[in-house]
Amino acid sequence: MTQLPAPPVLRAAGETHIGKVRNANEDALIVEPQIGLYAVLDGMGGASSGDVASKLARETIRDFILHRRRTLEPGALIAAALEAGSIAVFLAAQHQPDRHGMGTTAVACLAVAPDRVVIGHVGDSRAYLWRAGRLQPLTRDHTVVAELVIRGVVTPEEARHHPHKNVLSRNLGGRAETHVDVAEVELAPGDRLLLCSDGLYNYVTADSIQYLLGSGDAPEDVSRDLIDLALRGGGGDNVSVVVIDAPAAAPSSTEMVRTSGAATWWQNRQRFLRLAHDSGLTKNPIVRELPAREALELVGMSLCQAIYHDLEKSTGVNVWTFAQNLAAGWFERGGDWSAVRALIDILSGAARMVVEEIRSVDPKLGFLLDVAVSRALIVVELALGGLLAERLRRVEADVIALHGEAHDTREHATREAIIRGRGHARESSVPAGDRDSEAQLVSRPTIPFLRPDRPVTSSGLSIDVRSAIGKTITIARARISSGDAALDGAIQALETIAIDSGGNFATAVLAARQLYGVRSADDSSIMPVFDTLDEARGLVATSVRQLRASPQIAVRVLRALSTAHQRLVGAATGLVLEAVAPHGDRLREAQAVTSRLRDAVAKAERQRADLERRFATIVDPNLPWGARGATEW
Ligand code: CA
């Protein structure tokens, strides 16, 4: 004989209402988490004896469970408790003629373990299981009409409108003995149980019940909303509900981040916009020409949506595209870096505040959301880092185009520095040309580049450029020491991405996946990927110099390959994050990767500042700096 351990305490709530038509409430509830017992009873009988029946059965069932729980296994216990209720009601009716024939339904749920309940039921009160968005009945009505449906005498459609659909084939108290249906139910994390009287399901559609149970609201709120709905549906009967929550999943899985995290993030979007507004988002040069609401909507809401979709699908593509569109569009218009930095900092700060607020209410969810939002913000940084590096290479390309090959030794040294990525300056100085361009911006519409359908990069390289890219890649591959398959693969990937006419980030992700292969997410196995990518960049850049092509073509080849390289590095980094982040016990590791990446971005920024400063000293200020932002490929 199995003894019941102390019952698991499940979160539950119940509510009953007289309805709008009846003058007595003959329903009764049990919501007793301490003994793990929940029930809905719906009494019937003349002269308010239905009320007596349901209350008497309730007390009997409750006492039975309380006193006999250690002597019977759960299924037998719940059946015996309902049978005891039936006997008690039957005997009470025998003593008072005006209560003769009174009875009650009962649907009772006994919690056995955090993931297991038994359901006992007699009559037409129902139990439902809501699981993963779907509502399933756990009980079959004990009505005469339902029995006729089972025997094929009445169709389900006819049954719904049958005049005797409420006539029970079984109840507690009509006879001394009754037969109790017992079902054992295994609960999954996030499941919800609903017990209800016919006053609910006859006045509310199954879809509405499903919707309310799936709202994510607390059982108290769902119970109240279900009752409200029944009343709005006419309230022609007493209505009673009990909502019981299975324990939530241990919040350690990726699933949790995706579903709860995404939903929580989305629920807090207005809060995010308000915080972003209060932090000065609408005053940022990028959006200040717009009405405040439009600026918030375009920039804030776009980021909210991108984060939401990336959380849901566990990708970074949407956030990447958002950041690329925002910054690239601004740069193309000659906008300066500091405005982008300031705008992103405002958005990051607001996102962090939202996460902190969530963390103060629900530490575990807050922690996981923190990682997820950090991940999104890293993607933003990567996209910006990519654009910054692209800007560096534009500078390099402009120098090549304007001055030809290696005439000026200072320039040559600087180009080598770019290729090797060295630089230590701390201060960023905005070139005079950028300031001029910014001034011109005032009269222009600022925001069309934020259209979501804008491709991340352009399409359509000229045939000459494509062919020159092919030649460059051939030169580069010829210079690889034989057997370095990884480097060869990286260089070929650069070509594929560079000539991809769709300008699609997915091409880079595919190529990165090939390079990344199967490896563990630790430094010793990841860093070689990035070393290889670095080596490929250097090799390709120097191969461009060996290309026999006009400076204009060489510039475009270099631009295309630089962009491809940035995209590939970003995609590879995304894979690293993907590999590291999903595992709860490796979150610390993910955060370490995060800070290393942030350091890398900061370093890239310092390099950019350094190089801009150097170019400012060697390039003729009369040259058309302001025009260099236009994308030509
Ligand atoms: Ca009823």
Description:
- A hairpin with a 4-residue loop joins strand 2 and strand 3.
- Mean pLDDT is 76; it is low at 401-459, 581-588 and 615-633.
- The chain has helices at residues 49-68, 74-95, 144-150, 156-160, 198-201, 206-213, 219-232, 254-267, 269-278, 292-313, 317-332, 337-361, 363-403, 409-420, 432-441, 463-478, 485-499, 505-516, 523-546, 551-580, 587-618; strands spanning 11-17, 27-32, 37-44, 103-104, 106-113, 116-122, 126-131, 134-137, 181-186, 192-196, 239-245.
- It contains 21 helices and eleven strands.
- Helix 11 packs parallel to helix 13 (363-403) and helix 14 packs antiparallel against helix 21.
- The protein is α+β, with helices and mostly antiparallel strands and 633 residues long.
Q: Oligomeric form of this entry?
A: single chain
Unreliable sequence segments: 401-459, 581-588, 615-633
Write down the Rg: 35 Å
Unique bound compounds:
calcium ion
The helix fraction, in percent, is 55-70%
Biggest sheet features? 6 strands, antiparallel
- Tell me how many strands there are: 11
Instruction: Give the terminus-to-terminus CA distance.
Output: 79 Å
Essential attributes:
5-stranded antiparallel β-sheet; elongated; disordered C terminus; about 10% strand; alpha+beta; about 55% helix; about 625 residues; 6-stranded antiparallel β-sheet; single chain; binds calcium ion
